[in-house]
Design a protein that fits this description.
- By secondary structure, this protein is an alpha/beta fold.
- The chain has 2 domains: 256 residues, Rossmann fold; 41 residues, no CATH class.
- It is 35% helix and 27% strand.
- Strands 1, 2, 3, 4, 9, 13, 14 and 15 form an 8-stranded mixed beta sheet that branches. The chain has a 4-stranded antiparallel beta sheet with strand order 7-6-5-8, with no helix packed on it. It has a 3-stranded antiparallel beta sheet with strand order 11-10-12, with no helix packed on it.
- The radius of gyration is 19 Å and the shape is globular.
- It starts with a helix and ends with a strand.
- The structure holds S-adenosylmethionine.
């Protein structure tokens, strides 16, 4: 899965946006970046220096929109050369530095939008009481075998879960990188009970904005994603001295940052362009959809 995702994000075809396979909150409207910029500025006010580090910056839209409203040092950690080239092009007039590793001794905020859900997962299933990992052979036929890594998953018999061990690894790296400051992750996912209540797991593929259940179709040409188990991120953070200060829905979080005022301004403007934006902006906080499926985790290191 790691190789397939690497290949997918290396493609010359842009996977993100209306012409791609999926869109993110950053694609919908610059208000998303504006509200995050407000959050970062509030946090930065308590520090002498404050650096932003974005993980997996996609096309660079979020960086562009954040930098429009707050002038803080900005680093991007992006693994895909193709995505990085798009970011460099879009951000050529902005003061952004690309890094291959998280810096040490950072004061600031490491953040991401839809980064953790793009990491490869281990698919496991319980058979006769024992956890097995689902592998594929050279022809992409599934084989159930012994676990290669230690995984504890409270699964019912025959149930599947997609375990993101890399997410835990990233949380440890983030904690090690931060001297003081914040980690903010926005992603779709659940806390543990809801996560393991999905009997078929949460692995899903996207191709030209269609949800596709079969990950063995169009290998390397469709996005593969899985919901984040935020309980893992919270627990791993606690072990690594990251204190969780907030876990909520995107709707709740953006309302707290003032999105309703922005919606009212668009409604009052009343022109066609503002109405078109209004429809998109409302999606960011729509209950039952992006507003609730996306969660926001804020951790801090004091
Ligand atoms: C779903 S996209 C999110 C894009 C962007 N954050 C947004 O909101 O539009 C995932 C991004 O993470 C990057 N990525 C995936 N795995 C990564 C890794 N291990 N290290 C750094 N970047 C990674 C991808 O290349 C892509 O830019």
């Amino acid at each position: 899965m790691e190789e397939v995702l690497r290949f997918y994000y290396a493609s010359p075809r842009d996977p993100i946006g209306m012409q791609g396979d999926f869109y993110t909150s950053a694609d919908l409207d610059p208000i998303f970046g504006y509200l995050l910029a407000k959050q970062f500025s509030e946090w930065a006010a308590d520090f002498d220096a404050f650096t932003l580090v974005e993980l997996g910056a996609g096309k660079g839209l979020l960086a562009r929109d954040i930098l429009q409203h707050c002038r803080l040092p900005y680093l991007i950690l992006e693994r895909s050369p193709a995505m990085r080239a798009r970011q460099e092009q879009l951000l050529k007039n902005h003061d952004v530095e690309w890094v291959d590793e998280l810096p040490i001794g950072l004061t600031g905020c490491i953040f991401s939008n839809e980064f953790f859900d793009a990491l490869p997962v281990h698919r496991v299933v319980r058979r006769a009481g024992v956890l097995k990992e689902i592998y594929v052979d050279a022809d992409f036929a599934e084989i159930e075998g012994e676990l290669q890594e230690q995984i504890n998953a409270p699964l019912g018999e025959g149930h599947i879960a997609d375990i993101n061990l890399e997410a835990r690894h990233w949380i440890r790296q983030i904690a090690a990188s931060l001297d003081r400051g914040y980690h903010l992750a926005i992603d779709y996912g659940y806390l543990r009970d809801e996560f393991y209540a999905q009997p078929r797991g949460t692995l899903m593929c996207y191709w030209h904005h269609q949800a596709v259940e079969d990950p063995y179709l169009r290998i390397g040409e469709q996005d593969i994603t899985a919901h984040v188990n935020f309980s893992d991120l919270i627990e791993e953070g606690t072990d690594a001295s990251l204190e969780t200060v907030r876990f909520t829905t995107q709707m709740d979080y953006l309302i707290g940052l003032g999105i309703l005022d922005e919606i009212a301004k668009l409604a009052n403007a009343g022109d066609a362009a503002s109405m078109a934006r209004l429809v998109k902006v409302k999606n960011l906080i729509l209950p039952g959809s992006m507003g609730e499926r996306f969660k926001v985790l804020v951790q801090t290191k004091r």
